[in-house]
Each structure stands twice: as C-alpha cells, then as structure tokens.
Write the structure tokens for this entry.
Amino acid sequence: MSYEGIPKNVDEDELNKQSKHINKHEICIVYLLLCKNGNVYTGITKSLHQRIAQHRRGVGAKYTKIHKVDCLLGFKAFGSRSDAATVERIIKKLPQALKFKLAEEWDTDLVL
C-alpha cells in the first residue's frame, strides 16, 4: 500500500517511543519528501516519525518551512550515519526526475 501523505494526527508520545526503538539500532534513514512546489526534499534522520512531525510543524529545516511538505515519497535505512550521509549528498546532486525514480524503488509504507 502506498503512503499517501503525512498524517495530521500523530501522537507525540508514540513518536518518542518509536524514536527510542530506532536509535537503539543505530539506524539512519535517508528520506525523500515531495514539497508543495513540486520539488523533492532529501533529508537524513534517526527517527523518521519524529522528523516528519517536525517538517509538518515547520521546524528544523528552512527549506520545508518555506516550501510546505506534501507527502513522503520514500525512505531507506542504512546501518551507519556515514553511509546515510554519503547517500544523502549524492541524492541532493541528482536531477528531480531521478529523485522521483529513486523514490519508486524505496519503501513508502510508514507505520505509525
């Protein structure tokens, strides 16, 4: 099932609980968001649930504060922050069309 947007009714306590679970495993996630202006925002986080809530509130990233987020296009987990940061840097240099193509191959289901 495809993830159709960022949920509006996320429980902050549940986000924090899930964040702690993710952090125990030292997983870093690279994610792609579609902004309302049609551009793809690329980010990195240890807690995707919490980070999406921050983007939705307009905090943490100047770009998504100005260009509101429409939906999550995809995400992929990496075993280290170094690996995730390398992938993030590469993606940020890609043309928009390739970012959309990449998102088709990544996970899209975000379980809350």
Summary: The first helix runs from residue 12 to 24. DSSP finds five helices and three strands in the chain.
